[in-house]
Amino acid sequence: IQMSTQIINLSAQDETSGTTEGRMKWKIYKALKKEDRKRKAKDDHLPEQVNVSHARLERHKTDALKLDPRMLKSAFHRKKFAAKKKIIEEGIEKNARAEILNVEEDGFLDTEDGECSYNIGQKEIAQSVDVASATKSFGLLLPQFGPYRLNYSSNGRFLVLGGRKGHVAALDWQTKKLLFETNVLEKVNDIQFLHTETMLAVAQKNYSYIYDNTGTELHCLKNLFGVERLAFLPRHFLLVGSTKTSYLHWLDVSVGAIVSSTLTRSGPLDVMTVNPANAIIHTGHHNGTIALWSPNVKEPLVRVLAHHSSLRGIAVDPNGVYMYSTAVDQKLRVWDLRMHRQLHSYSLPHGLNEVAVSQKGLVACGIGNTVQIFKDVSTGICAQPYLVHKPGGLISNLEFVPFEDVLGVGHGGGFASMLVPGAGEANVDALRNNPYETKKQRREREVKQLLDKISPDLISLDPNEINRVNTEALEEDIQKKQSVLWVKEPTIEFTPRHKMRGRGGGVDGARVKQIVKGEDRLQKNKEKGEIFNQVFGTDEAEESGLNKSVLDRFVKKKK
C-alpha cells in the first residue's frame, strides 16, 4: 500500500519525465490500478448482468435455433450461418430481459365469499374502475338501422359499424371521435377493416365495396358478388368473402386480383371465421358440419360433423389451438384443432347464436338478447357464467377488443361496449400493433407489412411448414443435377462454310472447327461448374477443376 501511494504521488511527474525509471513506475502504477478495478468489481454486490430465467428464454425461442450450422457443406456458409444464429440468440436474450418493462397486469374480478360474479352489473364495474376505463362502457341506440355488424382495427383503437339497413360509421371509440358516417342506401351484410384503419370493406346487397376513413368509395369489387361474411388475412393481404351461392373468394387487396375461388357446394355460407394462427378459413353449414379451407386446395382440408343441427357461430382462439362452435341444438362445443376432436360440450339456454373468444381465453356467447361470458371453458371446469349483460336488443355480432378488457356487442337496437375484466392482453407489442401510432408510423408499418407479405401458396394447416425443407423434392432435384454432371459429352459436328478458291483452305477450316468446338466445350464446362457449385459447394467444385479457367496459370500459387 505504501509503495502504491508513493507511485501515485510520483506518477504525474514520472510520466512526463523521459527516464527509464519513470516509465517503469508508470507501468507498475497502471497495473495496480487495473487490479484495484478488478477487486472492486468482484466485491460489488450488483453484478453487471442478471441471469435470465429459463422459462423466459423458452417463451421467446424460435425454430431457427434448432438448425445446426454443421449441416452446411461450405465453410463460408457455416461461418456465416453461425454468426447469424448468434445474433438471433442475442435478440432472444434481449427480448427476455425486456419483459421486466411489462409492468401492466391482467384485470380480474374479485368477489366476496358466496357471491356470484355474474350478479355484478356493468354499472357496478364502471363505478369501481378508474375514470379512463369507465368511459369505455357505453352504448349507442340506433334502432332504426339495426341489427349491426362490427369490427375493430388490429391495434384495437378504431371501430366500424354496419347496420343491416345501410348505415355505415367509423369512429375512434376511445375518444368518441367520429371519422365518418354515411348511408349506402342498400342492405349491408358485413363489414371489415383491411390492413390499416384507413381502408375498410363493406359487403352490400349485390357487390362489395372498399371505402376510406372519410367515407369515400375507393373500389367496387364486382368479383365479390352476394357476399354474406367477410374476413381479412393481414399477413397475406387477402380479403376473404363467403357468398350465399356457396362460393369462397380470396382477393389480394395489394394488387386487386382474385387469388382463388372455390365452390363449396354446401349452401349459403353465412357462418365463417378465420384461424389467426395459420390463416385457414372455417365455415359452418346447415347440416351441422364445419369445413376448413385453403386457397390452394379446391376441397376442404378437414370436414368435421360438429353438431346435429345448423351452425350459428364459430370462433378460434388467437393461438389456433381451440375452436368454439354454437348451433341451434343449444350446445357450445370446444374442439382441439391439433387432433380435430371434441374436448367439452356445454348446454346453454334457448336462442344461442353468436360466439367470440378473447386473447385470454374468455368465451362470449349471444343468447337471445343476453350476452353471457364464460371462463375456463377449454379446461372443462366452467360451471356458471362469468358475466351476464343485456344490451337492449337481439344479439347479432360479438367481438373482443384487442389489448383491452372490452367486448363489443352489435344488436338489433344499436351497439354496446361492455367491460370484461381479464379479457385482453395487458402488455401491447407497440412494434406490431401500436394504439397510439402517428401518421408517419402507420405509413412505415404499411410499407413493412407489404415487404413482409406472405404468399398465399404457403397457407396450410401446419403454420410451421414454412420453416421446413421439402427433403423429397430437394433430393430429386439433386439427383437430376448429379445426372447432368456424368453425362458423356456429345460429339460436336461442325462443317465450315465453303469459301472461294484461295480463301480458307484445309488448314484454315480445321482451325475454325477447333475454335468452335473449344467455345462449345467451354460453355458446357461452365454450366457443369455452376451445377456442381449448387450440389456440392464451392470448395469441392474448385478441387474438381470444373471452375478452372485458362487464365488461372497466371495466378500465384499459395505456398
UniProtKB/TrEMBL annotation:
One GO cellular component term: small-subunit processome
Biological process terms in GO annotation: maturation of SSU-rRNA from tricistronic rRNA transcript (SSU-rRNA, 5.8S rRNA, LSU-rRNA)
Organism: Pristionchus mayeri
Span of domain BING4 C-terminal: 385-463
Cellular localisation: Nucleus, Nucleolus
Name of the protein this chain belongs to: BING4 C-terminal domain-containing protein
Spans of repeat WD: 304-345
Organism taxonomic ancestry: Eukaryota, Metazoa, Ecdysozoa, Nematoda, Chromadorea
Chief localisation class: nucleus
Keywords in alphabetical order: Nucleus, Repeat, rRNA processing, WD repeat
Entry annotated with the keyword DNA-binding: no
SMART domains the UniProt entry points to: BING4CT, WD40
